[in-house]
Amino acid sequence: MLSIFELLNSPNGQLWYHHIAGASQIIQFRGPKRFSSDFDIALLLSLGYPICAECLLNNKSCFLDDPTWIQVIKNAIDDREILTDRSPLGIRLLTLMLGAEIST
To answer: PANTHER family, from UniProt (predicted)?
Structure first.
């Protein structure tokens, strides 16, 4: 929420990535094994795209491209969902951003 506020409220819109970087570190420190509940998965997937963008802006590698994290993301697929973060298409898009190939 803070990153969205900063994106909309700051004059140049560049402060948002500080909040994303902090959220990214918290997720990374928790580790992939802690992302099993629906709430945890929703949190991870909602921040997946901003985390990728923050890594691109700072020219650094993204921890989500690790095979263990890719497996967590892959396990989040819900075939009942259409055009959401958990739909096969949404998961495919996120994994393509991460440079990972998975079969959905």
So the answer is: FINGER DOMAIN PROTEIN, PUTATIVE (AFU_ORTHOLOGUE AFUA_8G01940)-RELATED, ZN(2)-C6 FUNGAL-TYPE DOMAIN-CONTAINING PROTEIN-RELATED
The torsion angles phi and psi of 59, rounded to 5 degrees, stand at 50, 50
- Residue 88 to residue 95: CA distance in whole angstroms: 11
Q: Is there a domain that residue 104 lies in?
A: no
Q: What is the pTM of this model?
A: 0.79
Q: Does residue 72 lie within any of the structural domains?
A: yes
Q: Is the dihedral of CA 38, 39, 45, 51 positive or negative?
A: negative
Number of domains in the chain: 1
**Structure confidence by residue, pLDDT tens digits, 8-62:** 676 665 677 777 888 899 999 999 999 999 999 998 998 898 898 888 888 888 9
Q: Which tokens is 7 given?
A: 């994106």
